[in-house]
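Bench notes, afternoon.
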Amino acid sequence: MRRLGVLALVLVATLGIVALRARATHPATLEHSCGLTDRQFLTNYQLQLETIGLDGDSYLHGELDGRDLIAASREAARVVRSWAPTDPTLQLARRLAPAMFGEYAEAVQAREEHRSASRHMYLAYSIGARVDDVLREAKPELEAAGCDVGDLV
């Protein structure tokens, strides 16, 4: 009886492994959507990028205090995090973008404290490049679904 149980367990485990491997070799097709929350996310993400870009220029020209830019960057992270897109690509962008804004805030904080900001800027730009890559790769499918990401990539 014990041999039969062990044999059944081995058979079930083997079938499970085969099924998982078969699924891994045939990745699921990503279904893109462009609902209201997706379009709102894109609009707000673009607005946050433009705001931080303008504020960053003002900071570099001495027209904006570092504390204000840090606060604006953290607010941008909060705003992006508050939206809930349904499209999987936009969900990934939503997870990455707050980290990008957060690293940018850390870079400004380091600069304000006369420390090197290079590590944080590198991370901010790297995360931003990843978001850009994700959106660029999904651009045709997102546009076919009705979401224009052209201004973001």
